[in-house]
């Protein structure tokens, strides 16, 4: 049986990306970051094999591809408040014209251009 241990995002500025995702998700460093790698865990994960998916940030030196082939969906009971909070942390709304009628999500990107959606789950 396999499970997702961490999702790796490529970044150029590791300290900036680490600060964004730590504040956005309330995640903590699993260990001491290196110059090109850090793993962020849910605060109650309790080790590499604990419950919850981690985010790893990797400095790779190659440019982002647009549109990216992978993105995160972040669920929110109050998406407007979370979008405002994430913008305050440095997220930007993506100028995207592919929203279907009645879309329950907004596409944002982090400080490094990695895209993610904030999905409204208040009616589920």
UniProtKB/TrEMBL annotation:
<dbReference type="InterPro" id="IPR037523">
    <property type="entry name" value="VOC_core"/>
</dbReference>
<protein>
    <submittedName>
        <fullName>VOC family protein</fullName>
    </submittedName>
</protein>
<dbReference type="Pfam" id="PF18029">
    <property type="entry name" value="Glyoxalase_6"/>
</dbReference>
<feature type="domain" description="VOC">
    <location>
        <begin position="3"/>
        <end position="121"/>
    </location>
</feature>
<dbReference type="InterPro" id="IPR041581">
    <property type="entry name" value="Glyoxalase_6"/>
</dbReference>
<dbReference type="InterPro" id="IPR029068">
    <property type="entry name" value="Glyas_Bleomycin-R_OHBP_Dase"/>
</dbReference>
């Amino acid at each position: 049986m396999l499970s997702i241990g961490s999702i790796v995002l490529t970044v150029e500025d590791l300290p900036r990306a680490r600060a964004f995702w730590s504040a956005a998700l309330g995640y903590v460093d699993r260990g001491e970051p290196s110059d090109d790698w850090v793993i962020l865990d849910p605060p109650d994960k309790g080790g590499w094999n604990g419950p919850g998916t981690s985010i790893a940030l990797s400095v790779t030196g190659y440019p982002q591809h647009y549109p990216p082939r992978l993105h995160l969906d972040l669920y929110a009971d109050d998406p407007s408040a979370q979008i405002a909070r994430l913008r305050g942390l440095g997220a930007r709304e993506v100028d995207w014209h592919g929203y279907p009628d009645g879309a329950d999500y907004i596409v944002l990107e982090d400080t490094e251009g990695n895209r993610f959606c904030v999905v409204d789950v208040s009616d589920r």
